Amino acid sequence: MTAERMLPEDPLAFIQRCVQRRQLSWTYHINMRLQGRFISRQHILDAVDTYEVIESYPEDKYLPSYLVSATIEDEVFHVLFAVDVPAEQARVITAYRPAPEAWEADRKRGGGRDALSRLWSTDGSGSNHAAVQSA
Description:
six-stranded mixed beta sheet; alpha+beta; 29% strand; YaeB-like fold
């Protein structure tokens, strides 16, 4: 496994630390989609204490990634973070509100990789982890 593929010992703690320290990059995709999804950067930042990793994708295309459930003002949303352990940085890939009909009983899990695939195909943007902007 190359250095780029290093997995964090505790993915949730790593992501929360990166968010709290603003060691983030925001992908082109998320910058283009947040407004239409009514999720702000500030919501993602402010919800850090509510984060829960609900799915892991250690072999994702560019970097290991984690789907996180978050809550702000009693609203659940999901954020996909890719983690760059050697750089001590997280990349915010996308964020969306899961469709209520796809939620499981805990109202956090729902859709997962299938929901992400639908987002990519619906948006027509593809997963572009490489195009990032600093926080």
